[in-house]
Amino acid sequence: MRSALGMMMLLWCVISPLSAATLIVDRVDDDPAATACTAAPDDCSLRGATIAANAAAGTDTIVLSAATYDLTVAGELEDLSATGDLDITDDLIIQGAGSDLSIIDGGDLDRVLHVPAFYITLDITDLTIRNGRAESNGGGGGLRGDHLTLTMTNVVVKENEAHNEAFSTGSGGGLNIRHGSAALTNCTFCDNFSEEAGGGGISALYLTSFTVDQSTVCRNDGGGIYYQSTNGPANITDTIFDGNIATTTYDGGGLLLSGATEVTITRCDFIHNRAMWGAGISVRNSNSVDIIDSTIDANGGTDGEPNTPFSTHRGGGIYVYSGALTITASTISANGAYSGGGIYLTEGSPSITVLNSTISGNSADTSGGGVFVEVGDVTINNTTVTGNRATAIEGYNGDGGGWRHDHDSQRDPRREH
Predict the structure, then answer these.
(1) Which of 9, 11, 205, 229 has its CA 20 to 30 A from that of 82?
(2) Does position 10 have pLDDT exceeding 60, yes or no?
(3) How far apart are CA 71 and CA 60, in angstroms?
């Protein structure tokens, strides 16, 4: 009896996968039939390797060489990787030869990568994802996934587009992830586009953990990052937000926090971003937001003509609508807006605390060059407020170069200039 049972267990071990497969892609065409992925030459395309990995149990690894892999098989709304995007339905590692060497090009046929299955773990390293186009079904021109555990390291996501989506699903020209978690390290999200909803670069909704470290978010149209979650912490560290613009969403040029909690932004730079509200950062209905040792500089700006109004209406640096924000050891400088060049607070009893920081050289076309408080509670301690200005334009006299507040607030006047 014991011998028979032992033999059955031995047979089970023999026929069951004990280790995941490594699939080495050895051809650059997009043939879905090239799924063998053996030691023989030319039998493993990237699409074929994806199909093979989906069919095998365990966490497989797809290895790319220094080459460009063009996706050329047209066909959207298919989830088996036979056409259009590469659909991932099992845990997977995709390993490139370098972010500038291994390139997956969607050819504007469909998004590039799609994870239609729930509770998948995906690890992507050392490659570029570009030229994806999501016309529907949740955005994410470069990558889309729900209930996904995502890790990206040394990855460039650029020139992807997402069209015709709503804020309920998010858009995310480069990346759309809902539920699950995301850890992005040394990544670049640049030159992506979102038509309707937030996050030209990244849309991250309802995550249990969101980490962005040592990364660059630049020149995305639709805003840099749109983040919404009360399910767990978000940490954005040592990351540059440069030249993002929210042309269609109007809100949060660099970063839009909407309905978020436990967000910590440390040693980040927000520069040259533009939006109607909150060119650098927009905080809406979000609590426990901390900005530490960061720079918010030269956001807002004009339409390009001298002596014209700032294109940002409220909050060139930061816009707060019903939320709680603490700024520590940071610089808010040279930002511009119609009102509230540096910071603008409004609606829903927002609160902001500024500690050991500098608010300088910001400009408003009408009121509150440095800070405009329409509604809310403001505490500013041990902070220098200097060189801000409110100019006279369109019949306004220019009110409160450094500070304008319509309701009670608290500050330490000994460090105000």
Answers:
(1) 205
(2) no
(3) 21
DSSP state string for 196-223: SSS-SSEEEES-SEEEEES-EEES-BT-
pLDDT digits (tens, 9 = 90+) for 38-58: 999 999 999 999 999 999 999
Torsion angles phi and psi, residue 344, rounded to 5: -135, 130
Under DSSP, is residue 414 helix (H, G, I), strand (E, B) or coil?
A: helix
CB 144 within 8 A of CB 122: no
pLDDT in tens, 107-136: 999 999 999 999 999 999 999 999 999 987
Paired residues of 389 in beta bridges: 363
In whole angstroms, what is the distance from residue 279 CA to residue 42 CA? 50
Domain boundaries, the chain: 95-415
> Which of 127, 98, 99, 112 minimizes the C-alpha distance to 70?
112
pLDDT at 266 > cutoff 90: yes
Q: At 159, is the pLDDT very low, low, confident or very high (cuts 50, 70, 90)?
A: very high
The one-letter amino acid code at 307 reads N
- Contact between 81 and 104 under an 8 Å Cβ cutoff? The reply is no
